[in-house]
Structures are given as structure tokens and as C-alpha cells.
Amino acid sequence: MTTDLTQLQLLSELEPVVAQNLDRHLATVKDWNPHDYIPWDEGRNFAAMGGEDWSPEQSRLSEVAKVAMITNLLTEDNLPSYHRTIEENFSSDGAWGTWVGRWTAEENRHGIAMRDYLVVTRGVDPVALENDRMVHMTRGVHAPEDFGGVLDQVAYVTFQELATRVSHRSTGRVCGDPICDRMLARIAQDENMHMIFYRNVAGAAFDLAPDQAMESVTKVVLNFAMPGHGMPNWRRNGVLMVKHGIYDLRQHLDDVVLPVLKIWNIFDRTDFTARGEQAREELLAYLAKLEKDVVRFEEQRDRLLAREAARAEAATAAV
Q1: How many CA atoms does the CB half-sphere of 76 hold within 13 Å?
Q2: What is the number of other CB atoms lying within 10 angstroms of the CB of residue 149?
Q3: Distance, CA of 92 to CA of 82 (rounded, Å)
Q4: Of 128, 191, 195, 315, which alpha carbon lies 20 to 30 A from 161's?
């Protein structure tokens, strides 16, 4: 029977890995400026400054693109909640603290760039956007009650950063604007770098405490939810994004969960005790069910989109 490492032991044992990956990150990351990705020449005053307030016809974005941009931006807006949660479970000292500060500073660029883009191009109603921001940030984002400690958090942010990268890239493709696509591609690069950092730390945790790490990963995968959960209009917007492939079950399984699990060698590890094996078996059963759910979801979505296309064609023919 193995004895679990305490949170302090885990933080201490993993700190050299954090320091190494922090150095790697700082050596490879390329700094960028949000203002370089904004078409400022499209900007004009709103009514408070003698100009014209927003109206729907000013936006060039489709409904799907609007929803995706708002959802992604509001997700980034809750950075203070994420910072607080991560700092509480990691540390404000040493390499851990340096990383938390650096990660927060880099993530803050994303919200700055996306909001500037939407306001300058009048892509969405800025008043409604600000109202939603106030509601979402006041509510904050809270981890599930049984998510606690460094291993749960490192596992969660690994999947979450990769999921966010996928969402940003998908959103860029539906916006129909090469400037927006370029901006979101740059943001997605950051998310990928962050994912690699957390993935490497979690990988080291598997070598350090395999059973504990396996239990954390299983818990996170079985209870995963994007951090935008609970924002205004989340259910409606989430359904629309799923239906149009911004972030759906297939992407979650094939582009996020399985690639990370393979990097951690989840399926072939031989260093688990009975505890770890039980957690792995639970995860494998869940993945098998998720694959069936994905197939069923795709069939239902295809039928729905086909019906919508048929109705649209009939409506056009009737004009």
C-alpha cells in the first residue's frame, strides 16, 4: 500500500519541473502586442463622443461568429477567478509563483485584443457585452467542490488550455475576416504553449505519484466543463457553438482528451497499484461511452442541419 504525498510534498517535488518548464517557456515564447492585431482605421466614435451608437447592421459577423467571439471573450474575462484558484492550489512563491504571474499576464492579452477588435469593428453590441461581462465576473468561476489540490488543477488546466485553443481556432474560421482569424490564431498559440507547460508538469506528477495523478485525471475528465459554464446565455450559446463545430464532443474527444492521455502514456503505464488501475478502468469505461455518445451526437446533428438546409432552400425557392 502506497502513502499519498501531501500537497506540500507535491508542490516541493514538482517545483524543479516547474522551474525547468518556466525557463523553456520564456526561451521559446514570442511576445506580442494586442494593438498590432486591431484594424484601428475602422474605429469611430460612439454617441457619447458625438458619434453613432451600435446597431445590428453594423456587424459583419454571422450569428455563430458573434456567439463564439462573445463566449471566448467572456471566458478570458474571468481571469481574476482563474488566477485566484490557481494561486490557491499552487503557490505564490518560487517557480510556481513566477509561473502564475507570467501565465496571468499572457492570458490578459487575449481579452484585451478580442475586446478591442469587437469594439473597433462593431462586431457585437458593446453595451450588451459590457453588461454580460459584469454579470459573469461578479458570479466568478469556481472549481467543482471535489476538485482540490495541485494534481486536480494541473490536470484540469491541461485539458482546458487545449480546449480553448481549439475553440479560438474554430472561431477564427467562422468569422469570415482574415484580421480576426490572424488574431485568434495568435491567441491560440499562447494557449498551446500554456497547455504544454501544464501537460509537462502533470506528466512529471505521473512519475512522482502515479496513483494520485491517475485518480485526478479520471476525476477531471469525467467532470470536465469549460470555464465559461454559467455565463449569461450559456445554454443557448453553447448549443449553437456545438451545432456549428466551434467546440463539440468529437473535438473534445479526438483533439483534446485522447492526445493528452497518449502523451501521458495512460493506456500503457505499468506503475499503478490497484488504486491507479481502478481509476484507469473507470476512465476507459467513460471513454468508450463517450465515443458512442459522439457518434450519436454527430448523427443527430447531421439530421438537424439537413432539415435546416432543406427549409432554407424551400424558403428561397418560394420567394
Answers
A1: 26
A2: 16
A3: 14
A4: 128
Segment among 52-66, 185-199, 263-277, 292-306 with least mean pLDDT: 292-306
In this predicted model, what pLDDT tens digit does every residue of 133-180 receive, in sequence order? 999 888 877 666 666 789 999 999 999 999 999 999 999 999 999 999
How far apart are the C-alpha atoms of 111 and 233, rounded to whole Å?
Answer: 19
49 CB-near residues (< 8 Å, 6+ apart): none
pTM value is 0.91
Q: What DSSP assignment string belongs to 216-243?
A: HHHHHHHT---TTTTSTTHHHHHHHHHH
- Cα–Cα distance measured from residue 148 to residue 89, given in angstroms and rounded to the nearest whole number: 7
Q: Could you tell me if 176 and 262 are in contact, meaning their C-beta atoms sit under 8 angstroms apart?
A: no
Helix axes 94-121, 79-89, angle to 10 degrees: 170
Distance separating alpha carbons of residues 59 and 177, to the nearest angstrom:
12
Q: How far is CA 62 from CA 18, 148, 177, 187, in A?
A: 42, 39, 11, 21
Q: Which of 221, 263, 207 is nearest to 10 (CA)?
A: 207
Cell 453594423, located at residue: 58
> How far is Cα of residue 91 from the mean position of the Cα atoms in its chain?
22
Residue listed under C-alpha cell 491541461: 158
Distance of alpha carbon 291 from alpha carbon 65, whole angstroms:
28
- DSSP track, 60-90: -S-HHHHHHHHHHHHHHHTHHHHHHHHHHHS
How far is 109 from 106, CA to CA, in rounded Å? 6
